[in-house]
Design goal:
By secondary structure, the chain is mostly helical. Helix content is about 50%, strand content about 0%.
Length: about 100
Amino acid sequence: MSRDGRYRFDMRVTHRVGLGEMATALAAAHRYHDAQEDGPLGDLGKTKVLSLIRQTLAERGSDYLEGWADDLSESETRLMWDWAEAQVLRHFPELSEGADR
């Protein structure tokens, strides 16, 4: 029973992801980072990368990911994408094989 007195249950959702989805989710998690004001993003540890990807997918779902860069310029989008892809590949180099970029 939930706190509000209603009967509910937890449901786990699995997302099958590759390099493209992981990098997109990571970039989406940092979409409000302003490289001009805040400087470039640094390297993240594997645990942080996975945590941010899981959190983004849980909050937004995979359908949301397509519009992550709608408010960014083309150069900002490329910068963020390159950073996110590098972070994923640093921890999961096997994803470079047959990547879904």
